[in-house]
Amino acid sequence: MNKWLQDKNSFGMLAKTLAGLEEILAGELHELGAKNIDLQNRAVSFTGDKALLYRANLSLRCALRVLKPIKENIYVQTSDALYEAIQEIDWSRYLDNNSTLAVDSFVFSNYFNHSKFVSLKVKDAIVDQFREKTGTRPSVDTQNPTLRINVHLAEDKLTIALDSSGDSLHRRGYRLEKNEAPLNEVLAAGLILTSGWDGQSTFIDPMCGSGTLLIEAAQIARNIPAGIIRKNYGFMTWQDYDKELWQRVRQKSQAGIHQNVPQIIGGDISPQALQITANNLERAKLNDSVELRQLALQKLAPPKDAGVVIMNPPYGERMKEEDIIDFYKMIGDMLKQNFTGYEAWILSANKEGLKHLGLRPAKKLAFKNGALDCKFHQFKMYKGSVKAKYQKNS
Length: 394
Ligand SMILES: C[S@@+](CC[C@H](N)C(=O)[O-])C[C@H]1O[C@@H](n2cnc3c(N)ncnc32)[C@H](O)[C@@H]1O
What we know:
Strands 2-3-1-4-8-7-5-6 form an 8-stranded mixed sheet. It has a 7-stranded mixed sheet with strand order 11-10-9-12-13-15-14. The chain has helices spanning 22-32, 50-59, 79-87, 115-134, 185-195, 212-221, 243-255, 271-283, 321-338, 351-355, 386-389; strands at residues 11-16, 35-40, 43-48, 65-75, 100-108, 139-140, 147-154, 157-163, 202-205, 264-267, 291-293, 307-311, 343-348, 363-369, 372-380. Helix 2 (50-59) crosses helix 7. The longest helix has 20 residues, at 115-134. By secondary structure, it is an alpha/beta fold. S-adenosylmethionine is lined by residues 179-183, 206-210, 212-213, 267-270, 273, 296-297, 312-314.
């Protein structure tokens, strides 16, 4: 990566994401001013300076964490070679005796079977370096370390990176309460950005659960950085932390927030879900930007000014098959009857259910929701004859 760097303050970084969101994340990085953007598997590499590292952590909606590689593509095939490679790094640049560290290892290798073993070996190599030089050593804290170290071993190719995010960036800080099966915040933002919603037309999630899609939509519409209420990032305990620069980065992105917000409507049949959404909205300081309606999709009358509907209905794990089919048929019927002019997107792991919507998808995308393989289908609810436009069971 170094051969691309023109600016001496510039360095390589890697933003990790969920499968299928690489392109959207690359677009976000481009907007933030990143250079040398390169799509990888569930990650995007790029270059930039320390201000960009801070901006990326604060603003990226589709990144799980931002890594700063310090040693890349070293070949190691044995645990001794791994130990030596780690000892070659001067860790006093990143840690001192009073620091704490955590090592996260991701191992896809025939040479090393266990990621826990790799983490332990890396930790030993680091603390031994301190013990040999100073007689004392940093300690391990897996929850709240001064430095989180990311180890990636693909076969015999080792990359060591510092994790500038600390806690995963999907933990925005607003969702302390959850209803059933909430979406990962990064996935929710990714779905909205994938839909191409312009942030100006009506946005509806009629099955909002804990309100994740609503909160992410309101933040997108008002240009609010994803990490606005989050207090801590990994880079804040790094030796080179520049608090003034961080404050400048924060102020600049706060200055870009505006109040213009289209109608964003959340519905749910469950009063408990609606209460959770209301609490989450309050924590995100977005209660004025979103309208909540406690009712079933069957009763929701959307505004005539059409826009985008994104919903994540129950996948029916706890339902009988005929009930699932009826439930998804009902969703399709409601979209046809009440949402003329809207563009609807449905995320579901239930393929049978999706088939029984009775609507023909204009686009079919695939995502993973946790461990579940999901489809994300787009339906265009054209004006005019419903019969002519939709095919049954397609
Ligand atoms: C999978 S959860 C949605 C999770 C949500 N996307 C989140 O991130 O928290 C599905 C939601 O659909 C709601 N629901 C089920 N049937 C409904 C109906 N007929 N009308 C409206 N909401 C319904 C449930 O109460 C539940 O909160």
